[in-house]
Amino acid sequence: MKARPTVRALPSKRRSLILPRMKRPYERIAARLETRVGSREELTRQFLDAAWDALHSTGVSWIGFYCHQSGEELVLTARRDKPACSPIGLHGVCGQGFLQRKPVVVRDVRDLGDNYIACDPRDRSELVIPLFSQDGACWGVLDLDSHDVGAFDEDDVQALQELLRIAGLSQ
């Protein structure tokens, strides 16, 4: 018998929609991350390639790493598969994740108003995971976008945090 997908109601100003929650193949990413060899730049590239290959067909429209180099901005250091804004200020979602040192899940970016940095106007939801070095310092964030409202949840946060640890990119 076929397993039934988990469904979530998505509130709207006009009506409620019910959409299935797509299970993401995080185990495919983990299998490709077992060899952690190289610099931070090489590890971010390995992670991005594995993550993009597994996630782009599940509603992820963009994925990238923003690093804090100095001052009040984050710089895009690696991304898949299209360009994005860089540098970006710390007032946006990536900056919130970096400054608060906590993951940020944004169900609908339109609810953020001026605090949303729109690199692609089609994006509707976002997930930001802060990255920590061995000494506990936050060195940047992993940023994922989707054209779908409500594309990310706590399951995605937990899976990506663990994959970043496996990859040697966060503690």
Q: Biggest β-sheet: count, sense, barrel? A: 6 strands, antiparallel
Which parts are unreliable, with pLDDT below 50 for 5 consecutive residues or more? 1-19
CATH superfamily: GAF domain
Instruction: Give the CATH topology.
Output: Beta-Lactamase
Strand order of the largest sheet: 5-4-3-8-7-6
| Shape verdict | globular
Binned strand content: 25-35%
Return the average pLDDT rounded to an integer: 84
SS-based class = alpha+beta
Structure described in brief:
26% of the residues lie in helices and 27% in strands. It is globular and about 40 Å long.
Structural account:
This protein is an alpha+beta fold and 171 residues long. It has one domain: GAF domain (Beta-Lactamase, 2-Layer Sandwich). It is built from four helices and eight strands, in the order E-E-H-H-E-E-E-H-E-E-E-H. The strands form two sheets. The chain has a six-stranded antiparallel beta sheet, with helices on both faces. A two-stranded antiparallel sheet has the order 1-2. Helix 1 packs antiparallel against helix 2. The longest helix has 16 residues. It is globular and about 40 Å long. The N terminus is likely disordered.
Topology:
Elements: E1 7-10, E2 17-20, H1 26-32, H2 40-55, E3 60-68, E4 73-80, E5 88-89, H3 93-100, E6 104-106, E7 125-132, E8 138-146, H4 154-166
Antiparallel strand pairs: 1-2, 3-4, 3-8, 4-5, 6-7, 7-8
Helix pairs in contact: 1-2
